[in-house]
Amino acid sequence: MPTILVTGGAGYVGSHTCVELLNSGYDVISVDNCCNSSSESLRRIEMITGKKIDFYEADIRSYKMLYKIFKENKIDAVIHFAGLKAVRESVLNPLLYYDNNLCGTINLCNIMNKFGIKRIVFSSSATVYSDSSAPPFDEEMPTGEVSNPYGRSKYVIEEILKDLKTSDNAWSISVLRYFNPVGAHESGTIGEDPLGIPNNLMPFVTKVALGLLPCLTIFSKDYKTRDGTCIRDYIHVVDLAKGHLLALKEVLTKNTIDIYNLGTGVGCSVLELVEAFEEACNVKINYKIGGKRQGDLPIVYANVSKAENKLGFKTSRSIKKMCEDSFNWQIKNPLGYRQFVK
Ligand code: NAD
Ligand code: UFG
Question: Which regions in the chain score pLDDT beneath 50?
Fold first, then answer.
């Protein structure tokens, strides 16, 4: 079976994808500087799968370290998750985001070129779509009108990858635009572990449900949607991880560049998610309605026809399952991975 280098493999989506890769028989090497994760997640992946991951704790911006990794291993393809992802932080510190996300990716592609490994799956985001397009978003819609440096870094990386393919047709590239990943592995041993107070809805809800935070603020009920709250396309992280294996198979077997939306294609409002959580987990979520959060679009959901038709992508985990698995992870790990790390 091929050997896959997973950058950012200790993180939320990366760790779930490592599980799927190992369970499917791939050999996995991971590089992560653990700036937003813990190597404990890798130990848990090994526990779940009974298989070993070769781990390098390193920054993908280090040419020396990446050179060493490629020199020491026979790598067939890369799944590239490593990046910073907090929208607000990117507004406050744009240089950090451009340095980490852009320079990291350029360094990685340079080394891949050097070693003649030209197969990559890249984590992009629905944030590249422009707010002037009407949802559902499809891959042909215009991109680049982004409102923050995080989103711009994703847009620019997509453009760099397209240029790379134009310059050298030997590259095989799959760009995956995620919608809203939530949920956790059903064992409750790996999951999303944000540092400090979560920015995203689901980790906030699970913390309120457990009494770790007092109250959820819903960012406005004045949107032009069915209940006044924003609509998003939540996708279970295990379904998302499985999507990476389909994309990987494509870059390993074809000479291609393709962009795919990964979502469910179904929108769910904030209030609907809160209600679904209450019902699925049998808890009350204390919430209040607050003002709008700057930059939030009223409605974001995917047209997933391309991924379904070309990759055979199909999600199977419901909103109920997303809530149950998120809460199960939170209950089993109230302090995330930190309580286990010395
Ligand atoms: P995450 O923060 O949990 O995982 C990213 C991992 O990359 C972390 O383990 C972090 O330590 C590592 N990393 C960051 N910079 C690095 C560097 N320079 N060198 C080595 N390692 C580095 O985030 P995630 O939710 O798993 O997201 C994975 C990817 O998917 C990111 O690129 C993110 O932008 C993208 N994405 C995520 C979402 C989401 O809502 N989770 C949505 C769209 C796109
Ligand atoms: N929300 C609240 N209260 C909170 C947190 C979120 O009401 O405390 C609402 C937001 O206003 C939004 C919805 O819940 O309507 C989802 O918000 P998230 O922060 O969970 O997710 P976003 O849709 O804002 O952002 C996600 C990823 C980004 C990515 C973007 C692309 O986190 O990385 O999708 O659409 F860029």
Answer: 342
